[in-house]
Amino acid sequence: MPLSNAIYPGSFDPITYGHIDIVRRAIRLFDGLVIAVVANPRKKPLFSVTERVRIAENALAECDICGVKVIGYDGLLIDCAKSHNVHAIVRGLRANSDFDYEFQMALTNRDLDSDIETVFFMTAGCYSFLSSSIVKEVKRFGGEIKSFVPESVEQALAQKFE
Ligand code: PNS
């Protein structure tokens, strides 16, 4: 079965240039890409799912990325993938520290549905240190985040921390 459409799930709290780099590279490989903003129960997000979807949509528009659908989802990723008829899950991989968690998720998802493959994109070197948590921390304490996120994301963070 060809891997024509893919889903890129994550907390995206908020989306960063690291995520956007993965999106740019994934749309070159797949015919269609859906970004799934997942209500991750393991984390306590700063933004609601609705806010994270809107922030991601604005960020993609600001970066001139068209044709990528952003949805919110609360439930099992595999069910979301099936309901959108995709056969590939895209994930970005940074350092060793990501590996155990990604390995566990990929194997769990394959166990839940072996027709859906997880595909990893190695981070761009310049974003290998970047995470949504770091961005939030730097902004919360008044630091400069222009090289980490698009301006619309920076504004959303500024409003949140007002
Ligand atoms: O950006 P994150 O926080 O690393 O993304 C993790 C995410 C949201 C992809 C993961 O927690 C997830 O898929 N959650 C949905 C629940 C689920 O399907 N769990 C079983 C697979 S581990």
Would you kindly provide a written description of the structure presented here, covering whatever features stand out?
It is a single chain. The protein is α/β, with parallel strands linked by helices. It has a single domain (5-161), classed as Rossmann fold, CATH 3.40.50.620. 44% of the residues lie in helices and 19% in strands. It has helices spanning 17-29, 49-62, 77-83, 96-112, 132-140, 151-161, and strands at 5-10, 32-38, 69-73, 88-93, 117-122. A five-stranded parallel β-sheet has the order 3-2-1-4-5, sandwiched between helices. α2 (49-62) packs antiparallel against α6. The chain is globular, with a radius of gyration of 15 Å. The structure holds 4'-phosphopantetheine. 4'-phosphopantetheine binds next to β1 and α4. Residues 9-11, 38, 40, 42-43, 76-77, 105, 108-109 line the site of 4'-phosphopantetheine.
How would you briefly describe this protein structure?
This protein has 162 residues and is of the alpha/beta class.
Question: What descriptors fit this protein?
Answer:
alpha/beta; five-stranded parallel β-sheet; 162 residues; globular
Strand content: 15-25%
The oligomeric state of the chains shown is: single chain
Class by alpha and beta content: alpha/beta
Tell me the number of structural domains.
1
Helix content: 40-55%
CATH topology: Rossmann fold
